[in-house]
Amino acid sequence: MDIEKIRTDTPGCAKVAHFNNAGAALPPRPVIEAVSAHFALESTIGGYEAAEQNAAALQHFYDAVARLIGARADEIAYVENATRAWDMAFYSIPFAEGDRILTTTSEYSSNAIAYQQVAAAKGAKVDVVPDQADGTLSLEALEAELVKGNVRLVALNHIPTHNGLVNPAAEVGKLCREHGVLYLLDACQSVGQLAIDVSEIGCDMLSATGRKYLRGPRGTGFLYVRRGIVRTLVPPFIDLQAATWKAPDGFDLRDDAQRFETWERYAAGQIGLGVAADYAADLGMTDIETRVTGLAAKLREELSARRGVTVLDKGARPSGLVTFTVDGHDPAAIKDAARERAVNINVTYPLSHGYDPHVLPTAVRASVHYYNTEEELDRLLSALPRK
Could you report how far apart the first and last alpha carbons of the chain are, in Å? Predict the structure, then answer.
């Protein structure tokens, strides 16, 4: 990877050492220019007219995302963020009394809230699959739960927001296929960081955001829905994008993933997200994954060698998210002090950690990306308090 060119392509690199990529990454110049150009066009000829003029770029989004994750263009829906994409998938599943939802201890709390809401309304049950000793989802425990039966859905977060591990998504997919169970993968932190192939993973649905590792615009996201199950899912709300009105009292839902879309959308963002997907695919997701995990490993090594620093990450396969505490120092104060030195990091809080029985403390989260450098790692380390 030509890191110097990539950093030149990223205006923010001249201003800040950015280690909050799990929150929102710095966009590259092609994404910035694509979004700016379309918004400028809207301002001069009108929003509807700009969409007509840039129809090819809007349509290209579907091809670009499909290419990135190994899907078909008609299996992709443009959604305003990963939460809404996940919601549209989850709430479209026809849960019934006695159905079971299997999830992980490290589930994000927003998803956990949705499970509990549906369980209360439909008479379903949420079962949390235990971890292995290293914090990764236990495949043996998952299979044992699947054998018990009545499982309607397995919902997995690929990379938890707070402990740095990568869950075994493909192995989970294999088990779900063997037992004929729906599989929803929350890839909010993994798309743009890891090489993703939905056919290899075997998920039925996958939700992702634009703003994080994909380096796209905020207010953008996408949903993948496998072609073979689209017609079995009814979105929780629909409009003239998702369906065709049949007067006086009927409608026909689309038979592709766009049944999960709404007509009104952030058009400039859709174009920019397509450009971001192309940018990542052209760099090569295998190379991106190698660099991200390598930089994160170096940061963990340096942090672990420091007196008073505790690295909290778990899992046999670590990601680009690095979480840690510094004895005697408040994580929020560490974040603020680092920002004064033009180093961006973030804080992760226990209330986000879902069902995790080993509740981690409030911690600093530094999330690296491929455009970061070892010199920036040194800047981050120098911005941290010493015990």
Answer: 37
Q: Which 3 state secondary structure label does DSSP give 192?
A: coil
Q: How many other CB atoms are there within 10 angstroms of residue 253's CB atom?
A: 16
Cα distance between residue 56 and residue 323, in whole Å: 42
Element (DSSP H or E) covering residue 343: strand 343-344
Alpha helices, DSSP H, located in 314-369: 331-340
Do 192 and 212 form a contact (C-beta atoms < 8 A)? yes
**Residue whose C-alpha is closest to residue 347's, from 359, 357, 336:** 336
Handedness of CA 148, 153, 157, 162 (dihedral sign): negative
Structure tokens at 193: 């960081």
* 3-state DSSP assignment of residue 162: coil
Q: Identify whether 217 is preceded by a cis peptide bond (ω within 30 of 0).
A: no
Assessment of whether the complete model's pTM goes beyond 0.85: yes
Contacts of 237 by beta carbon, 8 Å cutoff, 6+ apart: 262
Helices (H), the chain: 3-8, 29-45, 47-53, 55-69, 82-90, 109-122, 139-148, 169-179, 198-201, 267-283, 285-304, 331-340, 374-383
What is the residue-level pLDDT of the chain in tens, covering all 387 positions?
Answer: 999 999 999 999 999 999 999 999 999 999 999 999 999 999 999 999 999 999 999 999 999 999 999 999 999 999 999 999 999 999 999 999 999 999 999 899 999 999 999 999 999 999 999 999 999 999 999 999 999 999 999 999 999 998 889 999 999 999 999 999 999 999 999 999 999 999 999 999 999 999 999 999 999 999 999 999 999 999 999 999 999 999 999 999 999 999 999 999 999 999 999 999 999 999 999 999 999 999 999 999 999 999 999 999 999 999 999 999 999 999 999 999 999 999 999 999 988 777 876 667 899 999 999 999 999 999 999 999 987
Could you give the dihedral angle defined by the CA atoms of residues 60, 279, 348 and 111, in that order, rounded to the nearest 10 degrees?
A: 30
* Distance, CA of 372 to CA of 322 (rounded, Å): 14
Instruction: Give the integer Cα–Cα distance in Å for 321 and 340.
Output: 22
